[in-house]
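Subject: sequence -> structure tokens, single chain

Hey, anyone have a minute? Need the predicted structure for the following. Not urgent.
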Amino acid sequence: MTGWCCDGLRWSAGGAGLVWRHPGHGERVSPLSPGRPVAFRTGARRGCTGVRRGARHTPCPTDAEVPAAAVAARCPECARLDRSYSVAADTRADDPRPYDVYLAWFAPGLIKVGITATEREGARLREQGALSFTLLGRGPLMAARRAEAVLGTALGVPDRFPYAARRAARHDPPGPSERAAELLALHARACALRTLPESLTPLPAEPVHHDAVFGLDRLREAAPAAGVLRLAPGRTVAGTVVAVAGPDVYLAGAGGRTVLLDVRQLPGWPLSAADPTAATTAEVVPPPTAEPETAALF
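Reply:
Had a minute. Here:
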């Protein structure tokens, strides 16, 4: 990487933004607020982004090319290296930070259990596109991991499911009160279990809803998304932000057509600025009906 490169999307308390990194100038964030124009053109190839741990970045040793539509911009070698020291792979058992166990609501009957570092203050739930969630407990990493496994075994609560199911459910979900009722019922069942780790401090059920931060009202008012943009070399994407949910940016383009940009496909592409009024030349395809969840970011 010799210039500015998109490193994906970051959620904060103030909303979503695109992260840009430069080897000499550090990091910048471009907010993805409603009505903001987004316009860029892809370069000749998408390269592996290497491995980043905190502020330290290790470039891909072979500058490998990665598939244009992949949701992770790492070659197999860098992916193995990245996973060799990760919470998701249980290779950081000595992590001293406290972790939260959460229940995340995505669709009726579709609630998953997961863990996230307490210091992230719910950003992980916004990254996943959870419409609602509640915390269940807090404690050391391995206690949180144990609780996650207990809920999966005793109550059949999954820790992952295809992302396509999440994307499809956000367009006409039941209201916050109905979502909260499901979360409260499952929270009560979980707290009644006698097999949860003693070192996990129970937390009260306090459902949090992301309707406003995701702009679900704007999604309901906008034209249904025509499909998902498929990036390829030398393609232009231009439009204005309608809403952002999880890693998905909904863009309004020419003629009022709404398309979906999956920001997980941006890292690794050399991107140059384009005219905001330019026509989008990236292909628009139907959303995938099945896609495995990628490794969690904690």
